[in-house]
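Preliminary data (for renewal application), 3-phosphoglyceric acid complex.
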Amino acid sequence: MTKVLIATEKPFAAPAVAAIKDIVSKAGYETVLLEKYTEKSQLLAAVADVDAIIIRSDKIDKEVFDAAKNLKIVVRAGAGYDNVDLAEATAHNVCVMNTPGQNSNAVAELVMGLLVFNARNQFNGKSGSELKDKKMGILAYGNVGRNVARIAKGFGMEIFAYDAFVPAEAIKESGATPIATVPELFATCDVISLHAPATPETIKSINYDLLMKMPKDAVLINSARKEIIDEEGVLKALTERTDLRYLTDIMPANHEAMVAALGDRYFSTPKKMGAQTGEANNNAGIAAANQIVDFIANGVEKFRVNK
Ligand code: 3PG
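Predicted structure:
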């Protein structure tokens, strides 16, 4: 029987798991569940005889592909697929897909929540500031970036966006002001919200020089990937510029140093939780299950990322 493994170190909410199981069983397949695993050996054992895997930020590398002899498809229930070795997937004849857009509102709402939390001094009772009339700069105008723009507009913020792949005309049509370069975006905006994937071009690209361009009292917020941050450069800039703040949903390697040096000008969630809502779990989990059934039953490869 066709087996679909849900391998989630950070589990979906229970209703999403139930919805996935329902889709899988209606297709005549079996669901196998591996949640909150702590050792790679557990993942290697679980993949041994499965045809399909649904993952989140779980790392799928050569060792996993080697161990998964029947594997035909991996669906990353979410947007970013930097956790999957695409070359190895292709070499093992495995299709990799993501589920773009399905969890993007959840991440955008977390961004706005962290911004309010920061503007009100982490709710410590001291007089804070407001987001209205501030300039919101969105770096990478994809599904999450556009949702941030939509909600930030409701706060009365002015929206600016940079995207290497989205034409300026399309940014304009959405009601945001296109900005031609990343340094210009940093120099223009009171808030910079990062939504770029981790790629060779973006890794460590958010650095000291960019932060030093930011206007007084500006805020950098990262809900994308920690790899895009030059962590030492950001710490140095915030140490020199005591007006700046840094908020992140992906705890940096130098978290302790950030806390010690920056106090409440820095905040990290304890564990990446932007996409951690019941709604996002349902949306992404259900999309992943449907994509697997469509691929195995009908050969549909929409959303394939290792073309
Ligand atoms: C994504 O790429 O979809 C988000 O970063 C969410 O990741 P998660 O599923 O690990 O929470």
